[in-house]
């Protein structure tokens, strides 16, 4: 089992919610997820530190064209 806790991390977050009308015209409340939830999902799924992906990414060229770097980008 992978522990999904953060230690010695200080982050300032401001909670945001969006209220919008659904297809039936009734208001719905939508919570935006934060960076801590994303970091926790990365740690629990991959077992790696979220900071391992800090400089990672597929630059697919101007306009989003190009080839993915590896299977993560597919």
From TrEMBL:
One of its GO terms (biological process) is lipid catabolic process. It comes from the Eukaryota. Its EC number is 3.1.1.4. It is found in: Secreted. Residues 36-74 form the Phospholipase A2-like central domain. One of its GO terms (molecular function) is phospholipid binding. Keywords: Calcium, Hydrolase, Lipid metabolism, Metal-binding, Secreted. Binds 1 Ca(2+) ion per subunit. Its cofactor is Ca(2+). Ca(2+) binds at residues 59, 61, 63. GO terms for cellular component: extracellular region. The keyword Lipid metabolism applies. It catalyses: a 1,2-diacyl-sn-glycero-3-phosphocholine + H2O = a 1-acyl-sn-glycero-3-phosphocholine + a fatty acid + H(+). Pfam families: Phospholip_A2_1 (PF00068). Belongs to the phospholipase A2 family. This is Phospholipase A2. It comes from Limosa lapponica baueri.
């Amino acid at each position: 089992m992978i522990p999904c806790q953060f230690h010695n991390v200080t982050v300032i977050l401001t909670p945001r919610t969006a209220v919008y009308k659904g297809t039936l015209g009734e208001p719905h409340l939508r919570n935006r997820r934060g960076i801590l939830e994303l970091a926790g999902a990365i740690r629990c799924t991959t077992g790696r530190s979220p900071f391992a992906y800090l400089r990672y990414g597929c630059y697919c060229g101007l306009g989003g064209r190009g080839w993915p770097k590896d299977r993560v980008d597919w």
